[in-house]
Amino acid sequence: xxxxxxxxxECGVSIATVSNALNGTGRASEETKERIIKTAHExxxxxxxxxxxxxxxxxxxxxxxxxxxxxxxxxxxxxxIHEYLEKCGxxxxxxxxxxxxxxxxxxxxxxxxxxxxxxxxxxxxxxxxAGVIYVGAHCREINVIPKNYKVPTVIAYSYxxxxxxxxxxxxxxxxAVEQLINAGAKNIGxxxxxxxxxxxxxxxxxxxxxxFDHKLLMNPNLIEAGNWHRRGGxxxxxKILSKGADAIFSMSDIMSVGVYDYAYEKNLKIGKDFSxxxxxxxxxxxxxxxxxxxxxxxxxxxxxxxxxxxxxxAEGKEDKRQxxxxxxxxxxRGSIIRK
Length: 339
Hints:
Blueprint: H1 4-11, H2 15-23, H3 30-43, H4 49-56, E1 61-66, H5 72-87, E2 91-96, H6 99-103, H7 112-126, E3 131-135, E4 141-142, E5 153-156, E6 159-160, E7 164-167, H8 169-182, E8 188-192, H9 198-213, E9 223-225, H10 230-242, E10 247-250, H11 253-265, E11 275-280, E12 293-296, H12 299-314, E13 323-326, E14 329-331
Parallel strand pairs: 1-2, 1-3, 3-5, 4-6, 5-7, 7-13, 8-9, 8-10, 10-11, 11-12
Antiparallel strand pairs: 12-14
Helix pairs in contact: 1-2, 1-3, 5-12, 8-9, 10-11
């Protein structure tokens, strides 16, 4: 990797001229600037961001703290953040708390992670980042930002005492259930996630509102807990279908796979014998046969919106939207009967 001194020597100009050309400043001719930029690229020159930040006493680096990079929603959000930051000339530092790996899916009930998260915030502060984006693994209130933290902070996929970007669980569930209703379903069952989860609470509210608005009876006997697990989806689907449901709204694709397992075992045809609408748009949803109709969460868009809000804060613009909720989109495949 070439240094700025080596680029200057190759071009026959001063280090200051190279620096100005690469930063878009100075009075060098356009021809000289183009030659310097081309030479720097060919020589593999990469600017020293730390040195530049110290010199300018400001930074164009954003810290991203993820609760666990392996959780399905996180990669899409980080990719959206990266895309927007890159477009705006920012780079980022990534801190991964690995909470799911350490404490399993119930990590947010274990206060042990709070100090680890606060420590990561302080590490980001010591790196003189312009701001921090905290990416939650589950939608809930985030209370791990250190008291009197001076670095601008944005929360993605959760909410708290900072500008927050997430999606509308209730409205998305409403739209998914409405897809079943519009296809002619009358006796609709529901497979719940973990019942204390905010996702479950909001999605259940959307289900109930859709049934009420369309004047359909909500039968409590057709509501079962699957607790986000494939086996839980199997058992819940078995109970719901045995009670005469003609459609199921499952709160996650993983639980929906359990319903596919049960249907295959009993020689039932999803999309012909009963309808199934799901949530999350995991990769497997398009690979099932028939394809699983599911609600896609706008993960990349959440990342972009969080990054946009972050840059506005970092550049001194006041954010008046404490919570921004983005809409999901329904992907219709073969798992819903079309009458």
